[in-house]
Write a structure and sequence with these properties.
It is a single chain. By secondary structure, this protein is of the alpha+beta class. Helices cover 24% and strands 41% of the residues. The protein has one helix and ten strands. An eight-stranded antiparallel β-barrel has the order 2-3-4-5-7-8-9-10. Strands 1-6 form a two-stranded antiparallel ribbon. The longest helix has 37 residues. It is elongated, with a radius of gyration of 27 Å. It starts with a helix and ends in a 10-residue tail after the last strand.
């Protein structure tokens, strides 16, 4: 009889401990929700951006970028933090003037990091090549602004 009471008491204590643990987990989750909501990323709306020597067309899946003598892609959605900062990976391809010639090798693609800031109407964009560590440049763009591109011919 004594063993049965001891087992019953142990089981009830284990259940109470488990319930206390679950309550603590729920409380921690509820406290963490507001913190996580502040750190959520927001997608840049699919629109056209332009500036000197650059045009960027943002899509839901990333962006295409056109320069005077190059082109690029951003291969992931452009997501900004609460301060307007963003970083995304993509590709960058240097072009040359003139028509493509038969047998000419394709332009070399470079993995690129696109990072910058936007307030929704203005954007600062820096493009860096991941394989060489070189910066392509920093550009100022405006939402809906016509690009000023002089293609290599």
């Amino acid at each position: 009889m004594q063993a049965s009471l001891t087992n019953t008491w142990l089981i009830s204590m284990a259940r109470a401990a488990w319930n206390n643990f679950l309550c603590l987990v729920v409380i921690c989750m509820l406290v963490a929700i507001p913190v996580q909501a502040d750190s959520l990323l927001k997608a840049i709306d699919p629109r056209s951006w332009g500036g000197e020597h650059i045009r960027m067309i943002v899509t839901l899946g990333g962006a295409t970028v056109e320069y005077d003598c190059a082109r690029g892609t951003i291969d992931t959605p452009l997501l900004v933090d609460k301060d307007g900062n963003f970083e995304a990976l993509g590709m960058h391809v240097f072009e040359r003037g003139g028509p493509a010639r038969l047998g000419e090798p394709q332009p070399e693609q470079h993995p690129a990091l696109y990072r910058g800031w936007t307030d929704g109407s203005q954007m600062r964009l820096t493009v860096s090549l991941k394989d060489t560590g070189k910066d392509v440049g920093t550009f100022s763009l405006g939402l809906g602004r016509p690009p000023m591109i002089e293609k290599c011919y």
